[in-house]
Amino acid sequence: MKYLFVHQNFPAQFVHLLRDLRAQGGNEIVFISETGQGHMPGVRRVSYRLPPPVRVAAPAPVAELARAARTLRGLGYVPDIIVGHHGWGEMLELADVYPDVPMLGYYEFFYHPTGLDVGFDPEFAPAAGAAPLVRARNTLNLLALAGSGWGHSPTRFQRDTYPDWARPRITLLPEGVDLERCAPDPQATARPFALGDIHVAPGEKLLTYVARDLEPYRGFHVFMRALPHILRERGDVRVIVVGGDGVSYGGRAPGGRTWRQHMLAELGTTLDAGRVHFAGKVGYGDFCRLLQRSDAHVYLTYPFVVSWSLREAMACGCAIVGSRTPPVEEFLRDGRTARLVPFHEPRRIAEGVLELLEDRRLARRLRANVRAQAERTLDMHAYMARYHRLIGQLAGSGARAVQTDAIA
């Protein structure tokens, strides 16, 4: 088959599908993107560049990508299916360039002025009159839903953020994890562990926290406020925090500082900073080793898009302390596969961590159960089979042949 992928970044959410298509052989794959590092053998990259800010008839990414797609069509490339992300609008004009080609769009999140991420954290209340601006963020979502393409969402929570009338055109397609690469290592705690200049001795307990960027949407502020109590109670605990200093979601920290700087200033001498290590962004191999070595792993999030790192922590058999928020509760059960705690309560987060560090029988049971849950629900091969089945249905008979939960 001939595939056309569309996303502002390469390879984005489609890295696993691209690898699988390459492994199959016999496919032609073109990926249009604005940015992205690296390359994949067998995947042709087509780049577009945004012009300086000027008045244009359509949003700049839409106009520039459409120009690139028309060039591609002029060279004779007509895909059997177009796969992309609807979040930034790049797919909007592709129906004009390729009117007879089915489109499969990634529907990630539908914004609401109340009840989900906006207003969830009382510490960062939305500004008065913010509701219309929040609704306006769904413009691209609504334009995509008004088209003729089909969509998919990775979790039931995310799909259910969309209006009732939209859900019949969005397939629930749970994402998978490489269960061989992300797997428990029973001997990890018996060996010295090093991550750059950070060293953890075999006798020390390791608490881990991971986010793309260290920010309130992923509970960084409440996690940091839990640390003084944990470190006072356990002199053998070392903490490794992975994540960048940018902002992926929400607002920036006050005073022009990063959220890391902001929280360190807030906690001051109450935090034993010598046992808290900020690793920044790390390579995937180091990330997996870190999860395998972890004695307790904290994952927190607003009612928002769930991170891939949660799935990978499950696959690695981490003893997880998670936030009792809907996206996490879709994956984990308190006392069965994790210890779930209120997002806004640092003391409860600290108590959850200390419980897992002190109750080894509980930690072993949660580790075994969460790995078993990952094997049942996060298998990459099953995920790819469902993805290919959906693509085959669309490319073969169009959206009329697809049922919303037919492959969920």
Give a description of the structure.
The protein has 408 residues and is α/β, with parallel strands linked by helices. The protein folds into two domains: 2-176 and 380-401, 3-Layer(aba) Sandwich (Rossmann fold); 188-377, Rossmann fold. 34% of the residues lie in helices and 18% in strands. The strands form four sheets. Strands 5-3-1-6-7-8-9 form a seven-stranded parallel beta sheet, sandwiched between helices. The two termini are 23 Å apart. The model has no long low-confidence stretch (mean pLDDT 93).
Task: Just give the CATH class of the largest domain.
Answer: Alpha Beta
Please give the radius of gyration in angstroms.
Answer: 22 Å
DSSP helical segment count:
14
Whole-number count of domains: 2
Question: Which characteristics define this entry?
Answer:
single chain, globular, 408 residues, alpha/beta, Rossmann fold, six-stranded parallel sheet, 2 domains, 17 strands
Offer a quick outline of the entry:
The chain is an alpha/beta fold. It has 14 helices and 17 strands. Strand 16 (320-323), helix 11 and strand 17 (339-341) form a beta-alpha-beta unit.
Topology:
Layout: E1 2-6, E2 9-10, H1 15-24, E3 28-33, E4 35-36, E5 43-47, H2 60-74, E6 81-85, H3 94-97, E7 103-106, H4 131-136, H5 139-145, E8 150-153, H6 156-159, E9 170-172, E10 193-195, E11 198-200, E12 205-213, H7 220-233, E13 237-244, H8 259-267, E14 276-280, H9 284-293, E15 296-299, H10 308-315, E16 320-323, H11 326-329, E17 339-341, H12 346-358, H13 360-377, H14 380-397
Parallel strand pairs: 1-3, 1-6, 2-4, 3-5, 6-7, 7-8, 8-9, 12-13, 12-15, 13-14, 15-16, 16-17
Antiparallel strand pairs: 10-11
Helix pairs in contact: 7-8, 7-12
